[in-house]
Amino acid sequence: MGHCRHLWRSRRLWRSPFSLVLLAAAFALSYAFFAAPSALQAECPVVSPLLIGPQPANLTFPLLTLEAMGNKRSTSVSAGGLYRPPDCRARHRTAIVVPYRKRPTHLGALLDHLHPFLQRQQLHYRIYLVEQWGNGTFNKGRLYNAGVREALRDATWSCIVFHDVDLLPEDDRNIYGCRRDKPSHLSVAIDKFAYRLHYPQAFGGVVAMTPEQFRKTNGYSNQFWGWGQEDDNLWQRVILSGMQVVRPPVAIARYKMIKHQRDAGNERNPRNVDLLRRTKLDWSSDGFNSLTYKLLFKELEPLYTHLMVDVGKKAPSYLRGNTTTPA
Ligand code: UDP
Ligand code: BGC
Ligand code: MN
To answer: Which one, 121, 152, 298, 299, has the greatest CB density within 10 A?
Structure first.
């Protein structure tokens, strides 16, 4: 014992190769445990070997709500709808943001379809459902802006995908990742529009932007209440901030839109057409940088992160001037 203690204190031990090996092993172990383990993994292949290509979205009617499907717990998906490929480091870290109110059967179909689709793409992803609280007029732009702000609190996503709840992608070669230089419009060919691009400046449905690109455009306008034109406004913001939109090939970027009526509380708003004409004047002061909302709760459901937000109310018309719509 005495000898051991002596050896421990003596400098000889510290100089011995054995102790150096021990020290290196301790460092390596703690790095593997405490630094992100994924950093040690090899990057996933450029083309995922799990892709299957064209796959029409088959819906069985009547559609079930997520609750009726048992809010399916999945072994591969972590609480909040988070997933990482188990055996490689993903090339994209994508937050999927879905604006939402009262579409429970569409939500069930989307989650059922999207999780396997994204996993075949070997993405690191999380699905955020941003629900508008109350029965006031719907404001998709505010929900998207709030969703991005909340998602960026959780992680440094390399890509944000803005996703209607009723669109089901039909070919997993349509990758839910971002290009560093240009925003992408992913829902090019929707069955509702005969699988053809609806119009050259179409920028609704499903869109992918990096957080940097989103900040550059100042995000969505907060002023478009009700249905229409908030996506055309974002298109103009992209152009005004010096970028261009890219699209995947029409043969791949195919979607089924679940049929529905226009929702109560989201009626077409003719004022939005006037607002669209003012984009050039308003875009730098109205958007991600002027957003106000209250996060009422954030719950980690098995298949998605549920954000309930109060985005405020459309001001009554007698208070509305020609140009401003206070929160
Ligand atoms: N939305 C919703 N509840 C509503 C209104 C809209 O969840 O009451 C969301 C949903 O994600 C939907 C998107 O907003 O897909 C766009 O609205 P809608 O589907 O009516 O527009 P469309 O693209 O079909 O004209
Ligand atoms: C509207 C868009 C809408 C698109 C597809 C356009 O006329 O301006 O807001 O997304 O139609 O329905
Ligand atoms: Mn729709």
So the answer is: 121
**Torsions phi, psi of 318, nearest 5?**
-70, -15
260 is catalytic: yes
Mean pLDDT of 128-146: 98
pTM: 0.88
Going by C-alpha positions, the residue among 296, 314, 309 that lies closest to residue 136 is 314
- Closest ligand, as measured to the CA of 273: 2
Collapsed DSSP state (helix, strand, coil) of residue 276: helix
Whether residue 92 is predicted with pLDDT greater than 60 in this model: the reply is yes
Q: Where are the beta strands (DSSP E) in 55-143?
A: 82-83, 93-100, 124-132
The residue whose CA is least distant from atom 8 of ligand 2 is 229
Rounded percentage of the chain residues whose pLDDT exceeds 90? 79
| Chain mean pLDDT for the chain | 91
Residue 99 buriedness (CB in 10 A; 0-12 / 13-18 / 19+): buried
pLDDT of amino acid 23: 76
> What pLDDT was estimated at residue 14?
58
Q: Which of 225, 231, 277 to mutate to test the pocket of ligand 2 (most atoms within 8 A of CB)?
A: 231
3-class state of residue 178 by DSSP: coil
Which atom of ligand 1 has the smallest separation from the CA of 163?
A: 11
Question: 150, 230, 232, 282: which is the annotated catalytic residue?
Answer: 230
> Could you tell which of 166, 198, 224 is best to mutate to test the pocket of ligand 2, judged by most ligand atoms within 8 Å of the CB?
198
